[in-house]
Amino acid sequence: MRPEQRLAQRIVDMNGLEPPIDIRAIINEFADVEEAKLPANLDAILIRTASARLRPKIILNPSPHGNRQRFTLSHELAHLRLPWHIGTVWCHTDWANQVDEGIHLATEDEANWFAASLLMPPSWLRVIANTDVEIDEKFRSVLTADVSPQAAAISLFDVMPPGFAYAIVSSSSQTVIQAGKSRNTAVDKMWRNTTFSDAFYQGTSNRHFTIECGWACIHLWSFATSVEMPTFADGILSKNVLREIVTEVLRSQEQQSQAQKSISAITGAAFGEYEATSAKQLLSILGQKFIRRDGVVAMCAEHPRFPEYLARRADELFRKRL
Ligand SMILES: [Zn+2]
């Protein structure tokens, strides 16, 4: 957990708070809040002077989304409570944009993680993540914290085990507003600002759920994270199986060696990138890496013996780690 998350959790624990957190009551202890139209898409300005006699003032941009204002107030509380956040600050609290575009203004990033962790305490989220229900039910539980779907998604998927992805899609334009996946999930996340397509995870996901929330639809997918692992006692190497596949599928030697190199590189990179804890899990990751490929790689991946190649390769790679 990040230090700012620990502080938020401590505030929750010390005050016996439970979601939905009454953030207005908490912020009123530390600052005056006023609403006024702010320029340049600012969500809030926190005005502080060096004088201890003057209470800090938060100027909050009016927003049609009450949950966005709740998040902004929680974000401002971070600036008030984290001792190294000082002075007057101008805040954009569009967390999703900042996470996606890797904008790392450290204090804003910290304030956002604090804000999320106060409204959705990590201990509370972990209970939800570990409850044995489907992902849509978990998501609905997180929304009871009165947070936006975007904030709910970033927070929940930060603690979910491998094998889950989401996309938040505008109901009016069908555009992907935000998308993501849990750690060590090998499928690609959906691309932002593209038109949503149901086909993106077709054939790869176990389950697909949707939650309608007026202006947006939340799509959730779960993927198999471990698949049946056959046992091989014949000593045949994966590279020999791959050699047979490429020779059958492709005519030119140049294409054959290109395919062989690409496929070995994809599997090798996936092994390095994801910390699989079993050969079965690694096999599932390797399988996910060959979804939506094109060219010679796709042609080979469609061969009936390709799953056997992947299983042998997963077995060999995993043994190397032991
Ligand atoms: Zn800020």
Quick gist of this model?
The protein has 3 domains: 3-119, Arc Repressor Mutant, subunit A, CATH 1.10.10; 134-223; 238-321, no CATH class.
Describe this entry's structure for a reader.
It contains 13 helices and 8 strands. Helices cover 47% and strands 14% of the residues. It has helices spanning 3-14, 23-28, 66-81, 95-101, 106-119, 122-130, 135-143, 149-159, 238-249, 253-273, 279-288, 295-301, 306-321, and strands at residues 32-35, 44-47, 57-60, 89-91, 164-170, 176-181, 205-212, 216-223. Helix 1 packs parallel to helix 5 (106-119), helix 9 packs across helix 10 (253-273) and helix 9 (238-249) packs antiparallel against helix 13. The mean pLDDT is 91. The strands form 2 sheets. The protein has a 4-stranded mixed sheet, with helices on one face. The chain is an alpha+beta fold and 322 residues long.
- How much helix, percentage-wise, in residues? 40-55%
Low-confidence stretches: none
Number of helices: 13
C-alpha end-to-end distance = 29 Å
Oligomer: single chain
**What small molecules accompany the polymer chains?**
zinc ion
Per CATH, the class of the largest domain reads Mainly Alpha
Strand elements, count: 8
- N-to-C series of helices and strands: HHEEEHEHHHHHEEEEHHHHH
CATH architecture of the largest domain: Orthogonal Bundle
